[in-house]
Amino acid sequence: MQVAITNGHVVPGAGAPELPAADVLVEDGVIVAVGAGAATGSAGEVIDATGLVVVPGLVDTHHHVAQAPLRGTGADLTLPAYLDTVIGRYLPAYRPQDVRLATLLGALESLDAGITTVLDWAEPTKTPEHTDAVVAGLTAAGIRAVVGHTAPGDEDDVRRLAARTGLVTGAVASLGPEWGTWEQAVHDIELARELGVPVTIHAQGGGADPVVPRLHAAGLLGPDLLLVHLNAATDEDVQLLVAAGVGVAVSPCVEPLMGHGTAPYGRFTDAGGRVALAVDVVINAAPDLFEPMRDVLRAERVRTGRMVPAASLLAAATEHGAAALGMADRIGTIAPGKRADLLLVDGLSHVEPGTAAGAVVATAGPAQVRTVLVDGHVVKRDGRLVGHDLDAVRAEAAELAVRVRAA
Questions:
Q1: CB 47 within 8 Å of CB 5
Q2: Are 296 and 263 in contact, with CB atoms under 8 Å apart?
Q3: How far apart are CA 268 and CA 378, in angstroms?
Q4: Over the range 146-176, which residues count as b (16 or more CB within 10 Å of their CB) and which as e?
Q5: Backbone torsions φ then ψ of 18, nearest 5 degrees
Q6: Mean pLDDT, the chain, as a whole number?
């Protein structure tokens, strides 16, 4: 299948210059050519991108996707209250069919906002039936997803998930040594490495018994590890993680609201690290990456007293996210050989060459996401999702939310 995106203002990423009035030619899900006239004579589907900015699909590196029906129910929840209420009571009430619906909604809301790849920290993976429901919801949506299995003690189910190929693949989501035992954390990391999948861990860093130096001493740090939050990371933590190439993800909209602390984005970038962005939970935050990009941009300009380039935050939400998930060879930039995960943004036809990336970060939102492609397939066209009625899914999921909260 051939798709030609024509006459768009292309932002390739990876430091490459922006390309006004350029084409992107896609064949069988792979970008084969980028540039002026690259799609001339194309025989496939043609998408006219005149007046639109073409950017890589956004990568959400930490999202509890099945919490989508509970959106807005925890605006004032502290972390302990969230653990008791959402994790302890609401999510355990999900049946497999509820998990599929809830995951479908979360994935569709992500796609609607231009998120083409998500790491789903999937609490519902407590039985094989629930795991299958997570996969089914993500697959039905058409999003690229990494499913973090949250019950790594069930090795058979983890192995089954890890064997998946295609758009929806597996990972290990470990409690880690701060929330669980050291022995279990070691088991989880070693299992993930045996299976060749990423392992992701919630971590604050620092503390009386700092875990990052301990992981380093045990030889467990590496680029296949993704640590989330790290709001209390010490300078030693930062240096060790950056040196080992460990993926770091922050959720700047959620962390201060729930009492984790401010996002440590700048402390890692100051040390030469690359930081990815995350939605995290929608009980108190919107399901998009535009506000996280702006939140970090504002914070960094205040922290440093410098005009940190707005475009640098688009890299955090695209290529750095891809690297954190071990997908830098496939997604995150617009270049020949990469998979065609793309979004077309409107409202910026007047911007000058070289400024579009920053304009997207500073001013765009889900309403400006006109068209989205995942693996070369159009999943949102002219402002509406393809093949799904988002309003209808939301209405059905609202009934689920009422039921589980009452239960």
A1: yes
A2: yes
A3: 35
A4: bbbbbbbebeebbeebbeeeebbbbbbbbeb
A5: -65, 150
A6: 97
Q: How many DSSP H helices and E strands does the chain contain?
A: 14, 17
Predicted structure pTM score: 0.97
Residue 143 CA neighbour count, 13 Å, CB half:
34
Q: Which residue ranges make up each domain of the chain?
A: 2-56+338-385, 58-324
What CATH architecture applies to the domain 2-56+338-385?
Roll (2.30)
Q: Kindly state the helix (H) or strand (E) to which residue 270 belongs, with its residue range.
A: helix 265-270
**pLDDT tens string 327-349:** 999 999 999 999 999 999 999 99
Q: What is the C-alpha to C-alpha distance for residues 135 and 145, in angstroms, rounded to an integer?
A: 9
**pLDDT-derived band of residue 407, with 50, 70 and 90 as boundaries?**
confident
Q: What pLDDT is attached to residue 132?
A: 98
DSSP state of 16: P
CATH of the domain spanning 58-324, picked from 3.30.830.10, 3.40.190.10, 3.20.20.140, 3.30.2130.10: 3.20.20.140
pLDDT in tens, 313-332: 999 999 999 999 999 999 99
Which residue, 237, 255, 234, is CA-closest to 246? 237
* Residue 371, beta-bridge partner list: 344
Percent of the chain with pLDDT over 70: 100
